[in-house]
Amino acid sequence: MKKKLVFATNNSHKLQEVSKILGDNLELVNLHDINCQEDIPETADTLEGNALLKARYIKEHYGFDCFADDTGLEVEALNNAPGVYSARYAGPGHDAQANMRKLLCEMEGKENRKARFRTVIALILDGKEYLFDGIINGVITAEKKGESGFGYDPIFMPDGYTQTFAELGDDIKNTISHRALAVHKLAEFLSSLS
Ligand code: IMP
Questions:
Q1: pLDDT digit string (tens) for 62-80?
Q2: Domains in the chain, start-ordered, CATH in brackets?
Q3: Is any ligand 1 atom within 6 A of the Cβ of residue 17?
Q4: What residues bind substrate, as annotated (predicted)?
Q5: pTM to 2 decimals?
Q6: Is 178 exposed, middle or buried (0-12, 13-18, 19+ CB in 10 A)?
Q7: Which atom of ligand 1 has the smallest separation from the CA of 153?
Q8: What's the confidence (pLDDT) of residue 16?
């Protein structure tokens, strides 16, 4: 029988991306599948802390082995902001457009445009906790470019490329992204157990 593992997300893009990498040796289910409808607290001040909070919540309240991720955009010239606060950089209730507007505004006149996306995955399996991370370095562009992806994709250009994540499209992004790198580490770990 396949091992059941909960991915603590309801984001269908993420679920698709992650299940492609993890393959079909395990039964991957999401929050909807386990009937978890509440907002899981993300109150830690690090990516590691938030990923662990979410994974522990599922284990404690639903009893399943699970993993959870948290991602942030860390901009060197802004002391690694927005970081763990990336989703609500422009304030609660604001969307990706407002977040990008704020970031471009903060970056006006800054010569150092270096930034990185960092994903942390927390896994709880058979009573033990594990962390995996994935990083992609790049720069913040001067203006938005491209239509695909989500979040800060239109203003992030990965090193070695001349287009933003939003111009590169999901197929390329999903092979090089922070999240893909972290999920590959998770996949390697899981396959080393079998
Ligand atoms: P989450 O932890 O995956 O929910 O990510 C937190 C926030 O980081 C999101 O709301 C986005 O603003 C941003 N973010 C995460 N992953 C990406 C990405 O792959 N591209 C662009 N922005 C992202």
A1: 999 999 999 999 999 999 9
A2: 3-193 (3.90.950.10)
A3: no
A4: 9-14, 71, 150-153, 173, 178-179
A5: 0.95
A6: buried
A7: 21
A8: 82
